[in-house]
């Protein structure tokens, strides 16, 4: 019973970075821009957040700083793909290389230095940890509690608001959206920046709220998992929440098994989230065009295409 309670308690913290990054990618790809740079964006967010806290900053400011830093890198990606019409796949891979390279150099002086993270609900409200409910809820933080509201707000915006429908129209048929008077470049650039903010927030959460330390490579392919999660969710924020909990549960299993001293193949168990990722990608490729995939995803739009 203790194992189950402990496992359930840490699943949200493992799911949160995946969900934040996947929500950012959903916004970006709903606008037709294929973003494979999540790994680099998350790394920049994680390093920036850690540096801000280690420099005496507030953990909440560190989350914001990580989001801003990743947005700056995402702007570079947006200028390349949207303005200069570079290939989306190659540009995304370049962002990964830049993000990992920059963090490897600038973050080196801060490696393995621990720092305090954001306060949990137990710290803020003095929740009694003597009950099952208290043990699970007390270790959560305001970010994990707010995520369902963020998911609902994003779903509502995409489905029920004029600006959200305009963004979706750009990703489905930019020529028709262009004729309707929608600024294609501005919409796509805004979507790319939003993806940078959320991916950076995901990375900063990973270092500031979960690990309380900066280690080179700590994102550990979570950016690629987030990309697979978007496909799994069919570009739907609500399905992304369920998928993030599933992937987070698999990721959280290893530390819990280690905590109870269970005899199990550690390295094999650590591959569980990535096996799930590969499974999602293989199934998607076998099915051809995935249901929910934006019609113009990853393609370069030229204005004459509308004629």
Automatic annotation (TrEMBL):
<dbReference type="InterPro" id="IPR001851">
    <property type="entry name" value="ABC_transp_permease"/>
</dbReference>
<keyword id="KW-0472">Membrane</keyword>
<keyword id="KW-0614">Plasmid</keyword>
<dbReference type="GO" id="GO:0005886">
    <property type="term" value="C:plasma membrane"/>
</dbReference>
<dbReference type="GO" id="GO:0022857">
    <property type="term" value="F:transmembrane transporter activity"/>
</dbReference>
<keyword id="KW-0812">Transmembrane</keyword>
<protein>
    <submittedName>
        <fullName>ABC transporter permease</fullName>
    </submittedName>
</protein>
<keyword id="KW-1133">Transmembrane helix</keyword>
<dbReference type="Pfam" id="PF02653">
    <property type="entry name" value="BPD_transp_2"/>
</dbReference>
<keyword id="KW-1003">Cell membrane</keyword>
């Amino acid at each position: 019973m203790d194992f189950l309670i402990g496992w359930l308690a840490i699943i949200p913290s493992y799911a949160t970075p995946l969900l934040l990054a996947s929500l950012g990618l959903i916004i970006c790809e709903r606008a037709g821009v294929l973003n494979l740079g999540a790994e680099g964006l998350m790394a920049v967010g994680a390093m920036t957040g850690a540096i801000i806290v280690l420099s005496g900053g507030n953990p909440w400011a560190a989350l914001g700083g990580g989001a801003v830093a990743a947005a700056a890198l995402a702007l570079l990606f947006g200028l390349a793909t949207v303005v200069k019409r570079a290939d989306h796949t190659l540009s995304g891979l370049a962002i990964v290389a830049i993000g990992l390279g920059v963090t490897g150099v600038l973050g080196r002086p801060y490696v393995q230095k621990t720092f305090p993270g954001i306060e949990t609900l137990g710290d803020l409200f003095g929740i009694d940890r003597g009950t099952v409910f208290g043990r699970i809820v007390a270790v959560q933080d305001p970010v994990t509690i707010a995520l369902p509201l963020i998911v609902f707000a994003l779903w509502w915006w995409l489905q029920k608001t004029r600006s959200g429908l305009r963004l979706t129209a750009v990703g489905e048929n930019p020529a028709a959206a262009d004729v309707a008077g929608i600024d294609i470049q501005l919409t796509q650039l805004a979507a790319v920046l939003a993806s940078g903010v959320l991916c950076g927030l995901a990375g900063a959460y990973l270092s500031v709220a979960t690990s309380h330390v900066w280690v080179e490579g700590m994102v550990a392919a979570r950016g690629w998992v987030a990309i697979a999660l978007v496909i799994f969710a069919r570009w739907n924020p609500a399905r992304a929440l369920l998928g993030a909990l599933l992937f987070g549960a698999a990721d959280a299993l290893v530390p819990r098994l280690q905590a109870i001293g269970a005899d199990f193949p550690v390295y094999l168990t650590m591959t569980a989230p990535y096996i799930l990722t590969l499974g999602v990608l293989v199934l998607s490729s076998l099915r051809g065009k995935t249901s929910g995939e934006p019609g113009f995803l990853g393609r370069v739009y030229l204005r004459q295409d509308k004629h």
